Amino acid sequence: MEYQRVQEIVASPSEFEVTYNGVSVWIDKLHDDGNTATVHLRHSLEERSEVAISELKEEYPVQ
């Protein structure tokens, strides 16, 4: 995913489906380096990871 799109998702009041390595995650924070973000699994608030934003994927609903 690109930096600008991650910014839009983080700033949006809507919910988006984002995955990291095929697992659904919430984006907690976008880092100032423009390359990484802190995420956590949707079902676990305790485990947070810093990941490359290029490895995040926005999942689109099946129509």
CATH class: Mainly Beta
What pattern of helices and strands is seen along the backbone? HEEEEE
- Specify the structural class: mainly beta
Query: How are strands sequenced across the largest beta sheet?
Result: 4-3-2-1-5
- Portion of residues in beta strands equals 35-45%
Query: Could you give the distance between the termini?
Result: 21 Å
Q: Give the low-pLDDT segments.
A: none
CATH topology: SH3 type barrels
Query: What does the largest sheet look like?
Result: 5 strands, antiparallel
Overall mean pLDDT stands at 89
Count the helices. How many? Answer: 1
Q: What is the rounded Rg?
A: 11 Å
Number of separate domains: 1
Principal-axes geometry comes out as globular
Family: Belongs to the SspH family.
InterPro entries: SASP_SspH
Subcellular location: Spore core
Keywords: Sporulation
Architecture overview:
The protein has about 60 residues and is mainly beta. It has one domain: SH3 type barrels, CATH 2.30.30. The chain contains one helix and five strands; from the N terminus they run αβββββ. Strands 4-3-2-1-5 form a five-stranded antiparallel β-sheet. The longest helix has 9 residues. It is globular. The chain starts with a helix and ends with a strand.
